[in-house]
Write a structure and sequence with these properties.
single chain; alpha/beta; Elongation Factor Tu (Ef-tu), domain 3; Rossmann fold; 7-stranded antiparallel beta sheet; 7-stranded mixed beta sheet; 16 strands
């Protein structure tokens, strides 16, 4: 069992949870994820590491209660425990050698992108962080990102905080101002990552995107997390989750992403009612 040491809401939709998992805390790196299961009746879901503390033996995850399992997860408290907390899985993000980077997070993707920005900052890289949210009440980790970035640019759809508009507008503006990025990392909705990659491609800027398709086992056996990259299909769990943003087939990823929408909706309805044990929360909707 893996004890939960702390649970706190970050906004009305998102929760931060600190789990005691000493072995994972010593090994996990930015970009990698874990597979957790609440109890023997639950499903396994993938969540990306938000922070780790090897000395304390803890791993922090941030998640949004969007499906049956994450809704159950959000109800747990400090002192409860998780049955399974397996990892680290996936490959660490390739960050070595970057000297000037732009890390972009869309919504909950901000929590997934935070450890990469922190690592880059700690290793002497100049880091711009651009984050996008629907409105000011959904902004995540503003103080934490300020502490590990050269510049933080917040974009909101309604202009209630920061600048009104899209993250790609801020990215284009920074490029036009002469920002000489040698790495852009984008984490968020597929459509956002698609247009981030389209923005950087004319300039030949190395661009990584973190893909979060449906994932069942996290080891490549189920085949559910296939991502078309160039002329081949790769598995996000073992080949990723980060891929060359200029090679990913985003339209294919979006088509695959809606295949199980009806099942997810039914599971959420059940969770909101009497039964919280079913569901498909297989995308990495957290960090």
């Amino acid at each position: 069992m893996y004890p939960i040491e702390r649970v706190e809401p970050l906004n009305a939709e998102v929760t931060r949870m600190v789990v005691r998992a000493p072995e994972i805390a010593r090994k996990i790196r930015p970009g990698q994820f874990i597979m957790l299961r609440i109890d023997e009746r639950g499903e396994r879901i993938p969540l990306t590491m938000n922070e780790c503390d090897p000395e304390a033996g803890t791993v922090t995850i941030v998640f949004q209660a969007v499906g049956a399992t994450t809704m159950r997860l959000a109800q747990l408290k400090a002192g409860d425990a998780l049955l399974d907390f397996a990892g680290p899985l996936g490959n660490p993000t390739e960050l070595e050698g970057a000297r000037r980077a732009c890390v972009i997070g869309g919504g909950l993707g901000t929590a997934i992108a935070y450890p990469q920005a922190k690592w880059l900052h700690e290793h002497g890289c100049e880091v711009d962080v651009i984050t996008g949210f629907r409105t000011k009440d959904l902004i995540l980790l503003e103080d934490e990102i300020n502490a590990c970035s050269t510049r933080q640019i917040i974009m909101t759809d309604d202009g209630s905080n920061g600048n009104k508009g899209l993250v790609t507008q801020a990215l284009q503006q920074r490029i036009d101002e002469g920002a000489d990025y040698d790495l852009v990392l984008a984490v968020g909705p597929v459509i956002m990552m698609k247009f981030v990659a389209a923005t950087t491609k004319p300039y030949g800027i190395k661009t990584l995107v973190s893909m979060n398709p449906l994932m069942i086992d996290g080891t490549g056996m189920c085949g559910g997390c296939r991502v078309k990259v160039g002329d081949e299909y790769l598995h996000a769990c073992v080949d990723g989750p980060d891929f060359d943003g200029h090679l990913v087939d985003y339209d294919d990823a979006m088509r695959r992403g809606v295949m199980y929408r009806s099942f997810e909706g039914a599971a959420r309805e059940a969770a909101e009612g009497r039964d919280c044990n079913g569901g498909t929360d297989g995308e990495r909707k957290g960090a």
